[in-house]
Design a protein that fits this description.
The protein is α+β, with helices and mostly antiparallel strands. The chain has helices at about 10-20, 25-40, 45-50, 70-90, and strands at about 55-60, 65-70. It is built from four helices and two strands, in the order H-H-H-E-E-H. Strand 1 (about 55-60) and strand 2 form a beta hairpin.
Length: about 90
């Protein structure tokens, strides 16, 4: 029997890295997230789920708040712009 000389963290990280490197991993994660979102949006937790996206996130520096937008706004404008820029570069 072969001895495994990997550290405990390597034993945890290696399968995750193998999964991420597969082309289908992005689609699987996206599909799971869609299913979870559909279940939450159509459950008794729907109101809380929708209010979650109204929370504001921003940067605070010297008592001033900058870039304070709702999570919904960050997703629509920020993450989508980054996604399409990345897509265009590849």
């Amino acid at each position: 029997m072969e001895q495994d000389n990997r550290t405990p963290i390597e034993k945890v990280v290696a399968p995750i890295q193998r999964f991420i490197q597969q082309e289908k991993s992005g689609g699987l994660v996206l599909g799971i997230c869609v299913i979870i979102a559909l279940i939450l949006a159509n459950s008794p937790l729907a109101e809380s789920f929708h209010h979650l996206f109204e929370h504001k996130l921003g940067i605070q520096w010297d008592g001033n708040t900058y870039f304070e937008f709702s999570i919904h706004h960050w997703i629509n404008d920020g993450l989508m712009a980054v996604f399409f820029l990345w897509w265009d570069l590849n």
